[in-house]
Amino acid sequence: MKISIKELRFEAVIGILEFERETPQPVEIECNIEYSYSKGEFLDYAEAAALLEATVKNGKFYLLEEALEELFLKMREKFPQIERIKITISKPDILPNCRVCLSDSRSYL
Predict the structure, then answer these.
(1) C-alpha radius of gyration, the chain, whole number
(2) Which of 30, 73, 82, 95 has the fewest CB atoms within 10 Å around its CB?
(3) What's the longest Cα–Cα distance across the chain?
(4) Contact present, 41 and 24 (Cβ < 8 Å)
(5) Domain residue spans of the chain
(6) What's the CA gap between 98 and 5, in Å, rounded?
(7) What is the pTM for the complete model shown?
(8) Which fold has domain 2-103?
(9) What is the pLDDT of residues 9-47, one digit of tens each?
């Protein structure tokens, strides 16, 4: 099975610049999850989206790289049935003429 979480938007403190440490800014996450499904055991996409958001908000990360690593860790802990996962985290308003994104993927097969 595959779940895609698209355009998960919220505000969080993330970044190394002084103003980024003081004021939450828009963050967007895209997440694609492949997992094993067996009858009655499913991956709750609402829980997955909530975990992604809470991890970034509570982490107050300095770097997108740190946030991404923690997201992989938390998702795997909560949902051990994940076989593959790709996460993209964006700061859409940090630069005036582009969207800054960082993405990576993991395979647990």
Answers:
(1) 14
(2) 95
(3) 49
(4) no
(5) 2-103
(6) 22
(7) 0.94
(8) GTP Cyclohydrolase I, domain 2 (3.30.1130)
(9) 999 999 999 999 999 999 999 999 999 888 888 899 999
